[in-house]
């Protein structure tokens, strides 16, 4: 528009109209000179609108386009020429090339008068210039300045609120620079000219400087321009040659400078980003043929190079290449404490700038040797990307990380209102994960990731303040795991993960854990992610050294607590867990609340051992709880006051424990973490339908504490604190039986429980109490008793002032226990009014050993009802007023020691009064172990015991005397019956004043006096002998003997008792299994000679046979032998006479036999001689025949040598009766020549 306001003399002289106008101005000038006074006023009265057409024609001729002045026109000459008009349109009114709201121009007066229009001041208000680039890329402005010449000059032009509009018809886009304010200096339309001012473009204010030299003949002018964002964010400098034409072209240099963000600290100050390049610009392309990019001007060593090309027009696009050596981010402040800051990766995400995205499609290639990202570096980075003008599409991004790791990414990067966005597929393949993991965690010497390969692939997402990985697949040493990850790094930093693990063993789990950051000990983790969540599922995984099956862990954490919405495992070292928990506090003082279910499969479950170790459960408590498992428990840990943390906690436990239903409530004033020091009130109950099974679970398997099958009920109530101790009560009952304790309990830091109180017992069978003190297998009757009890763990126990009753007998005493070595040792004294033999036997062998057929003598119940060695040893002194059985007093005052050890139980040093004498006994059952057989051994002595007092009348009938005896025995078996059957031993005995009734030795003289014995019948003789035998007794001053026991049989062999007038000798066997008797005793005369010889010591034998059983013996006297002996002796004289006659007859018979033998011998001799004669004759005949045969053969041989003169005898000559061989009845020669 500046060209439209100045008119030169040359333009007026080109036509008639111009000449007329010049004359008008001359006339006006002369008139002004003549009439100076009216010069100031006359222009105001002139209607300059009448000259509108003239001015429009002049402006049209200068600009080469139609000019329309639609507003008012005014002119003043003095004090300087001033022309003003408004609403100017250049070009078509529908599509003007330019418009000006108002124009005001001032000229130099003298030049003006000389027709030289030197504009000293020009003001353009709201000028709008319309520029176009047509479909062919040709530049057009709608004006033609070629005829403007040099008659117009602008010393100074002020532009206010101007606009430049560039319309690209190729893309149907319009680019507008608004609010252009500045100063323009123009020597001519051909240049040079200068503009300096400001303009708005795309909602930003810019400072603009533009200088142009004079154009040469080809229209080339050297130009320089400078554009700077008003706040100094960036600046662009262009210097070069501009070829102005329909296809303008610029060749020169480009310098782009971008200021860094304002630093709050001096250490954060960074240099400008500087881009320098040779540039070529045309209407269809911008080419940066070789640029150098410095991201930080202060770091001169970090430079990037490359080239770029931008295509303009309908299909705008670009193609750029970036290459370089080492590119790194600025270092962090050296005074920073790394452990107090988030991970560098998280910080980088929050500082990641939005990528510049040109508003056109294009392609970018990046090739860098190394990109340093502070915490790690990418080496050999190669990026191939394209842009659609809105987002970047990363076709391929490849870089290398430590551990021979290759990372690949393909996806989309966007700029969402200045915020970087990213979405695509990533793949990371590492040959050595231990080296890669050192990017985010400290290295360890024994890393399970050593030389372990792995990979990660998935879908990356970065939007706003969140970074995520979806559909991730993590591979560690060949095992694939599903991974979902989200990192929040903005105003709410957090980490959310979902991890679905494959089946892992302990080594694979350790390798996977070594790959992840140490969330517990790494302070950077809690700073980076103060909040977050995770969801972990695994079919099998190692958790704290144990394999967990069907593991599910879902939790959210915050700086205050970790909340497990679900924590479950079907099997973790023998445990089943399903819980929802909240963990807060610290590791030293954790605060736990929540609820869930816990299942324990076995007391030796490794998971249970791990829980014991974590909770610090003393080993003694672990042993005590061992029998209570398996269990299925529900628990609830809550605040004592809802929503008030620190006011105490309440633990509620219920479920199945020790084969019983348990309910427990623990009120903890200091919470679970202060359980050992705070106030505690504990209330618990246990109810079991099967009391025996429950007691067995509580470690009382071999302790039959109660009898019957009623429900077992246990209760407990204690309150107090760990340092001060607890007071309360506990009781176990079943039916009408009860064991209860009232008193105090103290818990030491080691876990040892001690106390003082009162123990009350009411039991139908006290065998369980015997087992409690280690005398397992012993049986005791029912008791009702109480005692003062004091104990210190399992080290010491004292029961004092014992007072009680068992049946009709009262008892008292004391018991003590002290642990010596590994086993407790019991001692004490028990005094009782009376003691039953059955109870003593049951204590010795066990009630089970007495089970058996009632018809049998010995029970066949097992001696080894419990194969486990007894857990204690002890020796209790017992004294009783009497030992009874079946209502009979067997012993009087009796004392003994009841002794037991892990292997044996015995009654030792028993001394009891019996039959005016003394009984001493020691008996032992030995060698408890895995074998079912037991050995019973012992010694028994009797001292001056009347036989009548120790055996029943049926057993001792007919015998009397005082007995002195000693016995030692041993037997092995699974039952008492088997033990008796295998018993061995030996012993001896002695009787004083021995008497055997009905065996009188005077029977022998009575027999000797019998007459005519041969005429008596045997029955009559036997009757007489029996009468004589029963007329007296067998008496001996003493009787001594010995016996052995072998194979369960007692053998009294070769017993000889020297009595008055007789001797009693024999043997007796007693089979202990059946108490069967088998023996024979023979009564013979002693110191007696029968003058008639009828009774002889060798034949006078009266036999007494003993049979039956020991409880019902049968004695039968056999007199048949004696009768036979007497009869034989009576017949002996007659036999002697008959024998003499027999001998004489035999002598005669022998003489006759000798004569017969002589005659027979003579006949034999004669027969022999006849046989010899016949043999000699036969031999002679044989010799004669042989001689004839030889002669005949000699003649035949002689005849063959001469001619045959006689007729040939061809007839058959049978060789009958020819002497061939030996002659008949001739001896055969044995040697040649015979």
TrEMBL record:
Annotated TM spans: 24-46
Keyword Transport among record annotations: no
GO biological process: regulation of protein targeting to membrane
Residue stretches making up the AsmA domain: 25-137
Composition bias type Basic and acidic residues, residue spans: 1169-1185
Extent of Polar residues compositional bias: 1215-1225
Disordered as annotated region, ranges: 1169-1234
Pfam families with a match to the protein in the record: AsmA
Record keywords, A-Z: Membrane, Transmembrane, Transmembrane helix
Entry keyword annotation includes Aminoacyl-tRNA synthetase: no
A single Gene Ontology CC term: plasma membrane
Protein name, as recorded: AsmA family protein
Record organism: Devosia marina
